[in-house]
Amino acid sequence: MSGSWKKYVLWFAQEHVDFRQAEISSLMRLWNIQMKTSSKHNPERPFWIVEMQNDDSARKIASRSISLRCIFELWAHSSSGLASFHEELQRYIDTNKTTLHDYFESKKSFKISVETYNKHFNQKEKVAKIETMQYLPVEGPVNLKTPDVHYWYIEFWGMDPMNVPEQPNDVLFGRWVADGKRDLINEISLKNRKFIGNTSMDPQLSLLMANQGLVRDGDLVFDPFAGSGSLLVAAAKFGAYVVGTDIDYMVVHGKSKPTRVNQKVRAEDESILANLQQYGCGGLFVDVLVADFSRSIWTKNIILDSIITDPPYGIREATERIEFKTKRKTTVMTEDAVHYPSTSPYQLCQMYKDLLQFAAGHLKLGGRLVCWFPTLKKDYDCDMLPRHRNLTLIANSEQPLSGYSSRRLLTYEKVSDYEENHDGFEMPSTVVENFRERYFTQLAEDNGTRKERRLALRETGRKEAMVRGKQQQPDGKWRYPSGST
To answer: Could you tell me which of 322, 410, 433 has the C-alpha nearest to residue 359?
Structure first.
């Protein structure tokens, strides 16, 4: 069997189910692993049966996967009831006695774990399930803590607690091979992180994005909307050198208003670098610069391995860029024209055009851009997604945010050389341009939470004031400017 393909069960945690297959496909690409499967993963089930060449391939995937609970080698699987399952397991053991002998020898301790979905078994019932497999030719001692061989018995009774079948939909049995990398989620938890902001990315999603970006040891990873650096932390945990930019001086320098409850002022050492040092990755920090992404500061010869980012959508964080205005200001010294840097709205369509153009020009061939894209569910159509002639969209996963809105994680791969002065960008839908306005309109119509309604009303009042020519004063109120009628 060492030279033949084996069946394995990819056993997933029940979180972010739409991201599973995209992550596994990325890890296959990362490790150059071949995999066979009869069908796409069904997100309504926590497991996916695949074929790989050996345990080493399975261990490599598990060593990076955030979606996986574990991988085990499949010995028996039945969708036709318990009797059929036991027949298949006995047949498998009889057929492969020689290759399975090492697992059953007297020196090898073992453990059998029982897992059920949508049906509760007490300990006595679990033991009874194990006793139905008395035909297993195990000779070693039982070790419940650190067994040499760990077996899993799983009964899947569907996912609907209001519609539990009379018999399990699937029964599976196999030998554990490797656990996933879900321990990293707790390791970089926001609860204990030194520096966080109002929009710090959830650690699990940050790590999923790093996997989608094929982040490797020694890579150079860039986040143009770095914020408090959550995506840089995830990339650094996988060994990449990280660099970022953000337009907000206060956030980049750790001087913004604290977001933790009961914290009144920032600590002096709060920073993105402090986060990386906290996780033992300080040596991988290149820098985070205060810069406006719409006005690139990078030379043409900057080549990046990955770009991983969460652009602002104008909901919790403003979409802004620098606008230079020329005004004539009279002083006792001079009356020369002076440029006053100020911000203006950074339209979503233009932002994603800049992002894809930048990726096309600065990514290496085969490099990836991983970014979030906001949508209202009623508006969504695949044609509205941004595209570029030098980039191929290879993954599109949805994270629901509410009953009417979601965001999609888009993964692009650079497939051809960038041609300067050639606009290869395309985003035909005009819906995206008005996303903020449509979001708040939908929010008000659907009567969201009390906090959301207040936010929607405040936004509506702001828009009405702007239409009438009012301006926001230093006290935060909207009034007509002095001297106007």
So the answer is: 410
Angle of CA points 272, 22, 423, to nearest 5°: 75
Residue closest to 390 by CA, chosen among 421, 427, 353, 365: 365
Say if residues 412 and 212 touch (Cβ distance below 8 Å): no
Work out the widest C-alpha separation in the chain, in whole angstroms: 98
Q: Cβ-count burial of 55 within 10 angstroms (0-12 exposed, 13-18 middle, 19+ buried)?
A: middle
More confident residue, 132 or 319: 132
Ranking 91-105, 130-144, 361-375, 413-427 by mean pLDDT, the lowest is 413-427
Q: Which of 408, 399, 407, 402 is nearest to 446 (CA)?
A: 402
Phi, psi (rounded to 5 degrees) for 240: -90, 150
How many whole angstroms from its chain centre is CA 167?
36
> Which residue bears the tokens 């069904």?
42
Tokens linked to 355: 């992002």
SS3 content of the chain, % helix, strand, coil (to 5): 30, 30, 45
Half-sphere exposure of 477 (CA within 13 A, CB side): 4
For the segment 52-100, what is each residue's pLDDT rounded down to a tens digit?
999 999 999 999 999 999 999 999 999 999 999 999 999 999 999 999 9
